[in-house]
Amino acid sequence: MAVDVDACDEMRPVAGFAARARSSVDEGGRTKTAGDVVGRGMRRATYPLYIAANIAPRVAMFVLLMVFTRVLPVHEFGLFALVITMGEILDMTASNWVRVYILRAEAGAKTLSAPRLGRALSLSWGSMLFSLVVAAIAVPMVSDERAGDLVLGTSVYIVAFSIVRLTLTFAQLTQRHVVYAVIEGARALGIVAATIIVPLAHINSFLPACLVLSLLTGGICSASLLYTLRDLPTPRIASSGYLAAFEFGLPFMLASLLSYTLGWFDRFILNYFTGPASVAVYVAAYAIARQPVELLVGPLNNYIFPILARAHNDGRRGDAAAMQVGAFTSIMAVGAATVCGLTLLAQPLATLFFPAGYHSSVATLIPLVAIGTLFLTLKQFVFDNSFHITRRTWLLLASGLPSAIVSIALGIVLIRLYGDVGAAVTYVVATFLALFISAVASLRVLEFDIPWRRVAGILIATAAASAVTWTLRPLVVPFGAFAEIAVGGIAFSAVYAAVLMLSGISIRHLVELPWVPGE
Asked: Is residue 347 in some structural domain?
């Protein structure tokens, strides 16, 4: 059921935001404060709703990976991971620009006309077909081991998750936040069903495991897509607008492909030098180290991007810049704490979630992957957004090229020498370089002040929380891995929140208005 946002209570402007952002005057002469950037009728409860919606499928997917490491032989799990990797890269490279283009082009539009809807669908399906053709050609080049099965698994994955992204895009565009949450919840149930079916059916090969996951996901989201489109006009194929879309999308596709050299392409290098078993271990560590950051930061970006684009499209650059300050602060607050917590609890996390053969390597890799993920998250969800909203997408390509070259070249050297540890070190180096270049370039496009005082407060809070957790851990070790995680997590969170609030950063503010700078 769609949310009637106009009937909801308006969000109250935050004084600190209004003080820092420029005011503008609307057609009726009314002064618009920066609080209006959140959008008329938008609710403070919506961001937590997006968190809940995004947590469900991500947690379900993590549980699936955890179960599959136990059900599938390590070699088969490595091939399963390669299918997911190739499907994700091809789908996101060929299709994600369409999502960003639709959200940017239609930001602020009260209705979506039939030709614009038809163009959006045409672009989406065309991109999916293109990625399928590339998959048939490229997948056998990546790995010649059971190439036919790899192509089939990757192709079905691409179709299923193209439908997922399209469905969520329309729900996001029309601000149907409850519908968005329901879709993600249903998708999570499909992942849970796949997690149950594979072991019950005694499946021990990667291809049927991939097909079960993709078919369940695609079926659920196809039904959701039909529901999402039912209140929109009947689509009509537009006769124009495609050239402008491709001009926007081409640099975006190339930049996305370059971005996948960070943390993803190294899996192919690992497979080449050491085989699928090493890929399995690296993917397990990558999942547990990256998921917590993305669980909390991903919803922030999903919610803020349409509002950010609308502010910039309306000519309120000051508001957009202030929102970037708020987003940077929120991501740093969430990301820094998560990295420290994962580093402190790497060993018990590996012990609790994965089979014995994974423990030592996964515990070593978790801190490195977590640090690289924080760098990459700041790049993608803060600085790269400046390129998107200002339509300077070619700068994404220019800023991503140096780090991509470093990632591939350094990865070949370090992975050949040190295996999965070499891949993790490469990830940290390349993502830091990518963050630095993107920050320098994007601040020339949309200038905003980096809140260094708040960054210092966040670092002090993480240091204090880490010290307390490190002191408590030896006392809890005799009670097992779960006790270590529970006690360590509670202690870290409590100390971190307390010190953060003493430094002037409100936890409530970060949850309710994460895109608005605090006082």
From this structure: yes
